[in-house]
Amino acid sequence: MLSIPRFARIFLVALILVTVPTAFLFYPSSSNEASADSNSLEQGGIDSDHWRAPVPPQGEFAIDAPDTNTKASDRDYKSATDPDYDVKAGKAGADDGAGHAGLYSVPQDVISGAVIMPHLGNATAKAELGRAAWRVLHLMTLRYPEHPTPDDRAALKSFFYLFSRLYPCGECAEHFQKVLKKYPPQTSSRKAASMWLCSVHNIVNERLHKPEFDCLTLNDVYDCGCNGTSSASVPLQTGAGAASSTTWLGSATD
């Protein structure tokens, strides 16, 4: 009978004890593959390919934002991304050129709501209010960017619709809303915005039987006091000419 040396027997036993467990540990199994696939989805970091759609805040902190899973034709999303969306008619407005203003916007029921303020019976207060309001509005459009971003355009357009609700003279605001419905705000450039507002000013002047305001003299009448840092910075006209051009939004009698 062949005898195996004691050293050889010990070596063979040790080899078997090491080889068998090692082979078992490295043998792939279906459960390990599934685990690897699921774990790979959890990998992240700024350099990884992992991505998920942003989740808007819910509850009392929620912002009026479109669902990323909805179609772009959704009305709320359309109003948020198109500065020229007609909030009253539900269609594109007359303002030429469209852009994308981002995902968040003022809720449509807030923009297109009715006048909030009551009527203002004091004619003197109404006149002073109107002169101040026209000055603010004209200076705003005269300092508006020459090349506005989509967000700039959406902000200006939303402002005018909100202004038409919150103007302290209720009857004046009602008339201004009618004007906006017929002549939507123009926001494509500084010139477009300032000329649009001047035209609206003259519509109000005509209603109040006031003389037409020369839109070419906007810079001469409405001075921003910018010390030469803006194209709208020129000496402010004083006297009768300036007073006659700054009429109020409403009238003493409706």
From TrEMBL:
Ranges of Basic and acidic residues composition bias in the record: 72-84
GO molecular function terms noted in the UniProt entry: flavin adenine dinucleotide binding; flavin-dependent sulfhydryl oxidase activity
**Gene Ontology CC, one term:** mitochondrion
Q: Does the keyword Nuclease apply?
A: no
Query: EC number(s) in its UniProt entry?
Result: 1.8.3.2
Q: Which UniProt keywords apply?
A: Disulfide bond, FAD, Flavoprotein, Oxidoreductase
- What is the required cofactor set for this protein? FAD
Q: Name the reaction it catalyses.
A: 2 R'C(R)SH + O2 = R'C(R)S-S(R)CR' + H2O2
Q: What Gene3D superfamilies does the annotation carry?
A: ERV/ALR sulfhydryl oxidase domain (1.20.120.310)
Q: Where is this region: Disordered?
A: 32-84
What's a Pfam family this protein contains? Evr1_Alr
Tell me the domain of life: Eukaryota
Q: Where is the ERV/ALR sulfhydryl oxidase domain?
A: 122-222
Q: What is this protein called?
A: Sulfhydryl oxidase
Q: Which organism is it from?
A: Cutaneotrichosporon spelunceum
**Which classification does the entry list for the species?**
Eukaryota, Fungi, Dikarya, Basidiomycota, Agaricomycotina
